[in-house]
Design brief:
The complex is a heterodimer. By secondary structure, chain A is mainly alpha-helical. Helix content of chain A is 51%, strand content 5%. A 3-stranded mixed β-sheet of chain A has the order 1-3-2, sandwiched between helices. By secondary structure, chain B is α+β, with helices and mostly antiparallel strands. Chain B has 2 domains: 101 residues, SH3 Domains (SH3 type barrels, Roll); 48 residues, no CATH class. Chain B has a 5-stranded antiparallel β-sheet with strand order 6-5-4-1-7, covered by helices on one side. In chain B, strands 2-3 form a two-stranded antiparallel sheet. The chains are: A mainly alpha, B alpha+beta. At the A-B interface, helix 1, helix 2, helix 3, strand 1 and helix 7 of A face strand 3, helix 2, helix 3, helix 4 and helix 5 of B.
Chain lengths: 295, 151
């Protein structure tokens, strides 16, 4: 099997990085800072390379996620409903905060899509999309938390990054990994962009066209239910929603029914779920859900 | 007796210092919290490249003198950006993040130029939507999602 020559190698190969603008990374005065350092040192050592998707850096994941999202938003029109988007954003941040990956490079962001299709997507780095059709099936904030937590789990477990074909990266890294230019030349940028395009295509195809493997969907359900539970939502609400979605599948709608395992099987895989000890029902959650989700 | 106690105390302090781990922030911003809990009050905000000494992990959070920071926001691996000992070793993912290299804004611009239909303006609008820690805390508290209430 071919060894992956990962992204970092290609970048490490560009040994002179003095043209970088790291001054944009501003922050507080606490702690030791890494500003004004000689970043040319970063690129030394082209003989060693990163080994796989797990070595894709936080910032690289973010830029992959942005481009995947730009493609999703080219296919699906964003819903212009500030109240609903803000509400979904809060619920997503609530479950993300309780996850094992509350911090991504620039945080989690949610966009409702103006589509009757029943679907939801998660792009690497923290970008989450839920269609209007999907939201119509959701009947409570706890169910919405379960749906969003499932998407947070795809991001936390880096399912999107895992879909990037090794071969695509290998060729680019081979070309670019050995040069010691002071900054990216136009040719290198062209080659990097080709590698980037391939990576984006792989992730978009998996998200929108083919769907993740069953194992990854079950894993996202399992961890999503746990995140919802740890955020003190009712984790069983995800099962309630999936059961309702199964009935909608009988109506012949497309979307995620083409790309996800049968809802009944997902419910079965989830097994028994009970809320956290501090869980309590809340009329406020019901009120604000009804106020925000009017589709 | 007293000198022995002092020596013992010094040995303990040395051992504690030796056990401390240097952690480096790898995300744009991350909260340092009062306790090792996702909804504990924020005491400070750390930024990309900030370094802290941590005395250990508690419930997924690194404990520092400035507060608790979640492990997903930092690396405990050695980041040798700018140090002489980085020469001859590969740049790691962490160092690439701090240097802003790899798939970055420059590559994104080139990609956007080639893919005119990609809707980056909608992505930018999406990114502007975020909820502050205090607003999220209020949302959680109002919804009965913080056992015992926010403290």
């Amino acid at each position: 099997m071919k060894r992956l020559l990962p992204l970092a190698a290609l970048l490490a190969g560009c040994s002179g990085l003095q043209n970088l603008n790291i001054g944009g990374y501003t922050g507080s005065s606490m702690g030791q800072r890494l500003q004004n350092v000689d970043v040319t040192k970063v690129a030394k050592g082209v003989n060693q390379i990163r080994k796989g998707f797990s070595d894709i850096s936080e910032s690289e994941e973010y830029y992959i996620g942005r481009a995947v999202s730009a493609q999703v938003l080219a296919k699906y029109k964003p819903l212009n409903d500030p109240g609903l988007n803000a509400y979904a954003q809060k619920v997503a941040q609530a479950v993300a905060a309780a996850s094992d990956r509350p911090s991504t490079f620039k945080g989690y962001h949610v966009q409702i899509l103006d589509s009757a299709e029943i679907n939801a997507f998660a792009a690497p780095g923290g970008f989450i999309f839920v269609t209007r059709g999907m939201l119509k099936l959701v009947k409570s904030e706890d169910e919405l938390a379960g749906v969003l937590a499932h998407e947070v789990a795809h991001i936390a477990k880096k399912h999107g990054l895992k879909t990037i074909q090794t071969a695509r990266l290998t060729s680019a890294f081979t070309i670019l990994g050995s040069e010691a230019a002071k900054s990216y030349t136009p040719q290198q940028i062209g080659q990097l962009t080709s590698a980037f395009e391939g990576a984006i295509e792989d992730v978009v195809n998996k998200l929108v066209v083919n769907g993740y493997s069953r194992d990854k969907e079950y894993e996202a359900d399992k961890f999503g239910a746990q995140y919802a539970k740890d955020a003190h939502y009712d984790p069983a609400a995800l099962k309630t929603f999936l059961t309702r979605m199964e009935k909608a599948a009988g109506a012949g709608v497309g979307g995620m029914f083409k790309t996800h395992p049968a809802a009944a099987k997902r419910v079965s895989e989830l097994g028994s779920l009970s809320p956290a000890s501090g869980y309590k029902k809340s009329s406020e959650r019901g009120r604000r859900f009804s106020e925000a989700v009017q589709l | 007796m007293r000198p022995r106690l002092l020596l013992a105390a010094a040995a303990l302090l040395t051992a504690a210092a030796a056990a401390a781990t240097t952690i480096t922030v790898l995300v744009q911003q991350a909260p340092l919290r009062k306790r090792a809990q996702s909804y504990a009050p924020v005491v400070k905000t750390a930024s990309l490249g900030d370094k802290f000494e941590s005395s250990g992990l508690e419930s997924g959070f690194y404990k520092t003198e400035s507060g608790y920071i979640h492990a997903s926001a930092v690396t405990a691996r050695k980041v040798s950006l700018g140090s002489s000992d980085s020469v001859g070793s590969a740049a790691t993912a962490e160092e690439m993040t701090l240097a802003g290299k790899g798939f970055n804004a420059q590559v994104e611009k080139s990609y956007a130029d080639k893919n005119g239909s990609a809707n980056f303006s909608a992505v930018n609008a999406m990114e502007r939507r975020s909820v502050s820690d205090s607003a999220l805390l209020e949302f959680l508290s109002a919804g009965g999602l913080i056992p015992g209430g926010a403290k």
